[in-house]
Amino acid sequence: MRLTSGVYSCAVLAISLGHAHANPARNEMLGAFAGHCFSPYLTPARVKSEIASTGARVDFYDLNPFSDVAPTPGTAITPGTDRRCEVTFDGRHGDAAAEVATSALQAEGITAGTPVPATHANAALPGTTLLAARALNPTRIAVVHTGTRPGPNGVETFLSVERLTPQASEASR
């Protein structure tokens, strides 16, 4: 049984960040990634209302949507991908980001590991806390990447999921 995104976000945060002293804004941004970025039906309108509204910075494109919305172009498209949802915010919270992303994958039933494809082989950078590939289905792979890096206001935390095209997924197997 799949959880709805709102209930799911609360469950992930309760499990992963159950500290009473945790930063509520940070938790909301992490929860927005967990609750929405893995949905194949995420749209630009939902990105704005459900993720960007938390104060997080978002990089989103979907060149081949699963729903009847128009494709969403991107400015920096990773070769071999047709969708990206990346959430960033100020601060050094890479370990929490990896924990939330891992919990979100498990909650969505995305657990079949596969090697990180060549398109992402050099993606790990200092501050990476998670770089993993998961089989979405027999023709699709997703790459999840979390960590910290230099941002516009100092160190930022990032959580990213990119969906490979069927051709790139097949080439990486």
TrEMBL record:
Signal peptide span: 1-22
Organism: Jannaschia donghaensis
Keyword Signal: yes
Keywords for this protein: Signal
Protein name per UniProt: Uncharacterized protein
